[in-house]
Prior knowledge:
single chain; 29 helices; alpha/beta
Amino acid sequence: MNANNSILEIINLINNNHLDRALDFINNKKDIKQKNIILNLKGVIYFKKKNYKLAKESFLESIKNNENFLDPYKNLYLLNLNHQNFNEAINYAKKITQLEENHKPESFFKLAHAYEMNGNLNEAIKYYEYSYKIGFEDKKLLYNNLGNIYLKLDKLDRSEDYFLKALNLDKNNKIITNNLLRNYLRARNYGKVEIYIKKAELLDKENEELKFNRALYLIAKNKFNEAILILKELISVKKNILAITSLAYLYLRLSRINEARLLIDKFLIMYPDNCELKFFKGIMLLNTGEFEEGWELYEFRKSNLNKIYNNINEWKGENLSQKNILIYNEQGLGDALQFSKYVIGLSKKSKEVDLIINDKLYPIFNKKLNNINILKKEDIINKKYDFKISLGSLNKFFYNKISSNKDNLINFNKSIFEEWRNKIDQNKTNIGLVWSSNFLGSRATYRSIELKKFSKIVSLNANFYCLQNEIWQRDKIFFNNSKIINYGNFNFEEISAIISNLDLVISIDTSLLHLSCLLNKETWGLLAAFCDWRWGSFYNYNKYETLKLFRQTKIDDWDDVLNKVESDLLIKINKKLDKLENKDKYPIRS
């Protein structure tokens, strides 16, 4: 049997799943000259036998034997994708595109997919679009993937457009139908949600994705018991992780805390390595003050798992007296503001500390304070560091160290402050107002209040200023007919100066609440019945001196909160009016 026939025989055995015979054939045939091909086939056998270690070794040996042979690179791409080693999958996909003589759209599609799975969404879009440009044939798959990416990026119009294009190519595709349904759920377009639930039911009423989408819709409509039944069904039949965490979160919202903990603990026994379950338990523990295990599990948050600056060692508490350290924030603006004070504590242990801050916040941070430098990403390209740590991970080292919120990194721009001092009418009480978060923000529906509910408050004898930069559609008519002055389009530097000239800021749980507190402005925070873990036991160690909290006593019911705000605000307004009226009678003496 010649060499080509031997290789064909091995391939035939592999295709017919006679893996042991194929391996024996290879081991007994010592005279086949195409060693790179044989090593690659040996890797395929081990791959199919799920012996991934030996598979990888064989593929790498094949490459070592002939570095221009494409097949082992393709197999290593699949192996790393299968094991969620997405950075490695990206590297092998790149190598494939470099080795191919002609640009093949399928290879660039694979590169795009690896980038998507790794969370590099803009790179994924670039290579999906390039694969389309050079002739990728499966347009339905391409459109669906782009729709999913734009959904993750909260670009819902583009997401909808791609899903509709995909659906136009296959009107009965249940996966794409349910993806489009997810888009409408995200946009809270409940009219379209109802239409596509019916369409999805006609295609497959038992579809797991449809059932989960229906549960989310029922939660949005406050039909909690019906949603719980569906989520329990998904959990019992499929052990759906997303259904588990969604049900646990719903239990927490309903103050059924023990049920949430039992549910998560039960499935952590079954799936002890699942990061989502670990993280969920972590935030529950942080909320109740069980910090030691809570901080450990908090490290499994998604934003932290996609490690960045991989060439720098992670700081785990080592001595820093002669070391420099890089701190970066992988979470939101509110986290950057709230947790930035811990950098001051760390600086007392370090030689030098560099903090990379979001571009939006950069202008309001003190650029140099002792051995602390506030930088942008591009500023550190050529710098060397001994250690790195994310701002969220820094919490566990300093959360219980008593410090004043007056000690922070916020920079007070006196000239902009003076400009706004002359613009704001000081003859009335001046109140900044933040009633809703970003429409597509995390849990926006639970920590946003319909503006018309403030009708009694904004009718009081005071000046009200909108500080948020987005007005939801439901609020626009009331907002446009109100006396609220819109300052929400200014950047953080201007907003900081505006806040500093107000008497009070009233805000739901957003970054502006944290900013107001860090500026030592009197702030009233409006919190949902079940709110973020940062307002649980953690807050006992991290109180804002100027913050007064108003918490819901009943789920989704803001009436009691706003009635209390109105009552307290009336007292505050009248005190200022009395003070202004008596100013001339009792002049302030020097």
